[in-house]
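Q&A FORM
Asked by: J.P.
Topic: structure of ATP-binding cassette domain-containing protein

PROVIDED:
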Amino acid sequence: MLTVAHLSKQFGTQPVLRDISFSLSPGEVLAVLGRSGCGKTTLLKILAGLEAPDAGTLLAQGQDLGPVPPNERQMVYLYQEPLLFPHLSVFENVAFGLRIRHVVKAEIDRQVHELLAELDLSAHARKAPDHLSGGQRQRVSFGRALIIRPRLLLLDEPFGNLDAQTRADMQQLFLRVSRQHQITSLFVTHDSREALTVGTRFGYLDQGQLTCFPSVTEFVQDARTAVRQELAFWESIQQTLPASASTS
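REPLIED BY: S.T.
REPLY: Here is the structure written out as tokens.
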């Protein structure tokens, strides 16, 4: 589905990405963990065609993406902000990609209603985006991306602005829908638990260098990711809860 080979990028004299190589098979979700400023967003922008690499090749299903403009790459880039059309209803926001492709009305109605039901948005179909919660707006954004069946979904910490419970709900929704539709995705995050929740494969980006791990165990055990320490911390918190509850 996607092959990235020896990708490099720098801004001025500052290297941002250094000789990055990886591949994605259909239906895989590569969760890339990394701190702020490590190059995660730049990587996604290069894949989406919003930035040009200094070196390296990008192939999608064997097609060289170098000369392909962003609107023809069949990729969707999701940010933390849903960026919905404020003047369109939920239904029309999701339907937009089909309308500009001149899909017949009956087929648009069928596909959009099915997807809204899947995303638990049917009751909100005629609402404007400013009448929705943050989680609902992000689901609409997700639906608008899915409706056009992109060959690759690029997610730039898409749930980062949501509260903890809504974020957890969105992670489970993404997991369910991505499995059902066999969506190939690159999901970048600075949250190790989120990476473990959504990923089928795992990477760590540090100072512009990407390490892809052959197994979740190696991802967890690598000291750079700090996943083992965070899991140990939350385990210790859970162990103290019963004692705290009994003395309260």
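FOLLOW-UP: DSSP finds eight helices and ten strands in the chain.
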